[in-house]
């Protein structure tokens, strides 16, 4: 039995735009994702989040599902334009009431709310009037919005996450342009990332100065990072993998723990990477009470001057800025997203975080997988999801044994939901959702996770699915020069 610490936080996660629907109800303003999804050609099959899981009206039913799982905690996000329809000014009380009712329902069910202030659905007015995350005004706007949320909910909410995955917004939203707001540019990611960091710093400062002493909660950020395994033992490839991690997680975590960007980014990007003022630096350093990590997969990284091929399905930022090529081992199993399943990468990454940031308290704020699975006779058999989570939880347990201060695990996701540009066809949920009727059906993985939570860990045969156990990275052949699918960078 792999037992987790007694107070380990067993959770599941969602986000507002992906599940709520009710996109224009009760005074809510439009977000950049409403506008993006309403633009033909942006989302697979023309799907939108207009209705999604209809969680806005069904939230009590969803809290009951969480209670059935025995969840200790639930991570959800607040839709900024529900609270401030145009991103500034007075609060929309009807929007706040929805979150207040949700928090009350959670607490009544004995479930601790973990609240993300921004999971990508920026008020559209801030985009149109100011350029969204490219604007230096965003820090103040975000701090004002955060204050409204702390003030309205902080008497009951003790766990706050400022931003979800600023890396994704920066790289995919302002670089590749395939997520909202759909802007493609080489320097956009570095500029947008900079303003998101400044916004985090401003909101964390508001919490610390005005609320933390009374409310006694904690605040952090949820950064995403996949593991980068050197493609070979060659020193150049080892250095390339390290550099790729610095361009990924270091980009957003170094400022929080060290007060500035990684030196490798400054060296390669020079003036393309914005500079923090002394005030920014002071605000940012030490601005996270815990290290939120969203982790899904692993890729191989080799040195390549000027950037090399990038595996399709690996988001790496600009490979040429990093002088890397990204591939996968063709023997790795993959999920429906094309993301390799390599649990040992999770253990390696937790070790890397410990080394670089001095063993901070870490919370895995997302980990999950998409697989196709339909309802047959009222049941959904998703053995591969069980294998995936058994593997990644075992890796977490190993990381704790290595010395990591891992405090919790939020499985992505409670429900099948709107998977951004992929629409509804990529299903990450513990519960199947029939998007025509809204009907939720617990998958086999939901029962499995309930048992894991009840036992406080994994039994030795925890991987009850059929998938073969994944190998540890050290036992893998170094170097994979014929990866399954390659695409050229940009
Ligand atoms: C995260 N990538 O998104 C988000 O926080 C969730 O909203 C999302 O549903 C989940 O992971 C699954 O995708 C990501 O391309 C989107 O590297 C894209 C990437 C990573 C995370």
TrEMBL record:
Gene3D superfamilies: Glycosidases. It catalyses: Hydrolysis of terminal, non-reducing beta-D-glucosyl residues with release of beta-D-glucose. The keyword Hydrolase applies. PROSITE patterns: GLYCOSYL_HYDROL_F1_2. The active site is at residues 165, 366. One of its GO terms (molecular function) is beta-glucosidase activity. Belongs to the glycosyl hydrolase 1 family. This is Beta-glucosidase. It comes from Rubrivirga marina. The lineage of its organism: Bacteria, Pseudomonadati, Rhodothermota, Rhodothermia, Rhodothermales.
């Amino acid at each position: 039995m792999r037992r987790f610490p007694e107070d380990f936080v067993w959770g599941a996660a969602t986000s507002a735009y992906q599940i709520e629907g009710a996109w224009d109800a009760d005074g809510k303003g439009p977000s950049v994702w409403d506008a993006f999804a309403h633009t033909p050609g942006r989302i697979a099959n023309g799907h939108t989040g207009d209705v999604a899981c209809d969680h806005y009206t069904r939230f009590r039913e969803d809290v009951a599902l969480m209670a059935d799982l025995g969840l200790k905690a639930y991570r959800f996000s607040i839709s900024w334009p529900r609270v401030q329809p145009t991103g500034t000014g007075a609060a929309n009380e009807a929007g706040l009431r929805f979150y207040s009712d949700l928090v009350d329902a959670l607490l009544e069910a004995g479930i601790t709310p973990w609240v993300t202030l921004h999971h990508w659905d920026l008020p559209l007015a801030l985009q149109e009037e100011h350029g969204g995350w490219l604007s230096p005004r965003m820090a103040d706007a975000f701090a004002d919005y955060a204050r409204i949320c702390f003030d309205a909910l902080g008497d009951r909410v003790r766990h706050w996450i400022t931003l979800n995955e600023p890396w994704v917004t920066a790289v995919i939203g302002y670089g590749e342009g395939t997520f909202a707001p759909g802007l493609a540019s080489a320097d956009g990611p570095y500029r947008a990332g900079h303003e998101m960091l400044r916004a985090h710093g401003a909101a964390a400062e508001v919490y610390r100065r005005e609320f933390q002493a009374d409310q006694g909660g904690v605040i952090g950020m949820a950064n995403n990072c996949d593991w980068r395994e050197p493609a070979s033992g060659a020193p150049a490839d080892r250095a390339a993998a390290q550099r790729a991690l610095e361009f990924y997680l270091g980009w957003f975590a170094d400022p929080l723990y060290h007060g500035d960007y990684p030196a490798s980014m400054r060296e390669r990007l020079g003036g393309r990477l914005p500079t923090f003022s002394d005030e920014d630096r002071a605000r940012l350093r030490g601005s996270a009470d815990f290290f939120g990590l969203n982790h899904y997969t692993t890729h191989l990284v080799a040195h390549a001057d000027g950037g090399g091929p990038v595996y399709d399905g690996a988001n790496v930022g600009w490979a040429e800025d990093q002088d890397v090529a990204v591939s996968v081992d063709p023997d790795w199993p993959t999920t429906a997203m094309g993301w390799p399943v390599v649990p040992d990468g999770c253990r390696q990454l937790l070790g890397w975080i410990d080394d670089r940031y001095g063993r901070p308290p870490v919370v895995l704020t997302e980990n999950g997988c998409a697989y196709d699975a339909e309802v047959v006779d009222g049941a959904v058999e998703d053995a591969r999801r069980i294998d995936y989570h058994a593997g990644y939880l075992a890796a977490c347990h190993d990381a704790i044994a290595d010395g990591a201060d891992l405090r919790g695990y939020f499985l992505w996701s409670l429900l099948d939901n709107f998977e951004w540009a992929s629409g509804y066809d990529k299903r990450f949920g513990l519960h199947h959702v029939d998007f025509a009727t809204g009907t939720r059906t617990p998958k086999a993985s939901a029962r499995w996770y309930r048992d894991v939570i009840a036992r406080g860990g994994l039994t030795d045969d925890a991987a009850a699915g059929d998938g073969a156990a994944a190998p540890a990275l050290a036992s893998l052949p170094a170097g994979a020069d014929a990866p399954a699918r390659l695409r050229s960078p940009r």
